[in-house]
Amino acid sequence: MPLSVEHFTLSDYQSNCYVVRTDDAASEAAVIDPGGDPRALLAALAQRGVEVSGILVTHTDIDHVEGVAALAAASGAEVWAPAGEIEALRSGRTRTGTPFTAHEPEHTVTAGDEIVVAGVAFEVVDIPGHSSGHVAFAVGGTIFSGDLLFAGSVGRVDLPGGDWATLLDSVNRLIAHFGRDAVVYPGHGPKTTLGQELDTNPFLGELRSAAQ
């Protein structure tokens, strides 16, 4: 189905917050990873007559969740968060101890779940490696990957819950499941494809060698 994807930068960390709708004319949207003050986002959506119907969280680092509570309060939207990282959101403290405004999510998600938000059907995929409970949200061949994989890079693994071998395995499973042509909307930087990263990403040399 057609999909409208817009990105906003809400935090000083230059993290991507995505607004996903069934098409450009849809009046409801799902918001993925509001990592900072959501007022500019809400103003832009209000100008277009678009309401936030749900908030999706890929993982609970500060630059992906700092705006969750404020956006939920302002919009009345429910929150879907990964079951493996739910305590961070509830406690308002990241894995490194950074405080943020806590929020009790209405829904938890894990691998294999299918959720419908703003008329968009998302498949939930577990992708640990950058963090232990990290998930991706996929719509057909479009993947919102959080901080697992970027254009030309990958997520850091030196924080609690990070693991290099696990991260590579998660990337490899995405390729096996979705194929090379799948479009990746990452947590930072421009969009890319799984095939482009497998072919050129300097951090995925092990996967390239295995695929040859």
Q: Report, as a whole number of angstroms, the end-to-end distance.
A: 33 Å
The computed structural class is alpha/beta
Mean pLDDT: 97
Q: How many DSSP H or I helices? A: 7
Proportion of beta-strand residues? 25-35%
Major sheet, described briefly?
Answer: 6 strands, mixed
What is the H/E order? Answer: EEEHEHHEHEEEEEEEHEEHH
* Percent of residues in helices: 25-40%
What does the radius of gyration come to? 16 Å
Q: Got a strand count?
A: 14
Strand order of the largest sheet: 1-2-3-4-5-6
Shape: globular
Unreliable residue stretches = none
Give your account of this protein's structure.
This protein has 212 residues and is an alpha/beta fold. The protein contains seven helices and 14 strands. It has helices at 39-48, 62-65, 68-75, 86-91, 164-178, 194-200, 205-211; strands spanning 4-9, 16-21, 28-32, 51-56, 78-82, 107-109, 114-117, 120-126, 135-139, 142-146, 149-150, 153-154, 183-186, 192-193. Strands 1-2-3-4-5-6 form a six-stranded mixed beta sheet, covered by helices on one side. The longest helix is centred in the C-terminal third of the chain and has 15 residues, at 164-178. The mean pLDDT is 97.
